[in-house]
């Protein structure tokens, strides 16, 4: 997709893609901030009680909550990196091209997954590719 590209409504596809990526990035940053607050609250609450997770009746659930939020934070950071890479591809005129086969990624896929790097066919054929948006 080039900066000069236009869709059927006359709007710049470059501007549309940039806006979609920026909105997803803003949502992801907000989610990251909320997860950081949740994590900090779990750690702070845990500091007020016994530090022995093994013998504390709530220790197991506290450890699970902490691990769960940490995993969500990691997924959110990964998604943020994917969005940043998509913005680079957009600037380089490579956004919307499948990294495997070089075909155009359908606009419907990019609308749902703005950071997508593969077309639907290639995404289905790669069993190691994560199937989640963060």
Walk me through what this model shows.
With 134 residues, this protein is mostly helical. The protein has helices at 13-47, 59-91, 107-112, 120-125. The chain is elongated and about 55 Å long.
Q: What is the number of beta strands?
A: 0
The helix content is 55-70%
Return residue spans where pLDDT drops below 50 for at least 5 consecutive residues.
Answer: 1-10
Query: From the alpha-carbon coordinates, what is the Rg to the nearest angstrom?
Result: 20 Å
Spatial gap, N to C terminus: 24 Å
Mean pLDDT across all residues, rounded? 84
Secondary structural class: mainly alpha
The largest pleated sheet is described as: none
Proportion of β residues?
Answer: under 5%
Order of helices and strands: HHHH
**Total of DSSP H or I helical runs spanning 4+ residues:** 4
Large-scale geometry: elongated
Describe the secondary structure blueprint for this structure.
Elements (H helix, E strand, L loop, with lengths): L12 H35 L11 H33 L15 H6 L7 H6 L9
Helix pairs in contact: 1-2
């Amino acid at each position: 997709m080039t900066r000069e590209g236009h869709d059927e409504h006359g709007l710049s596809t470059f501007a549309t893609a940039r806006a979609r990526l920026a909105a997803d990035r803003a949502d992801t940053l907000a989610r990251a901030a909320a997860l950081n607050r949740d994590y900090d609250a779990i750690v702070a609450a845990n500091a007020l009680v016994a530090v022995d997770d093994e013998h504390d009746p709530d220790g197991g659930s506290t450890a699970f909550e902490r691990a769960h939020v940490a995993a969500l934070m990691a997924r959110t950071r990964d998604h943020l990196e994917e969005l940043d890479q998509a913005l680079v591809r957009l600037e380089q005129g490579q956004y919307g091209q499948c990294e495997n086969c070089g075909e155009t990624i359908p606009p419907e896929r990019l609308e749902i997954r703005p950071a997508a790097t593969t077309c639907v066919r290639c995404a289905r054929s790669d069993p190691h590719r994560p199937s989640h948006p963060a």
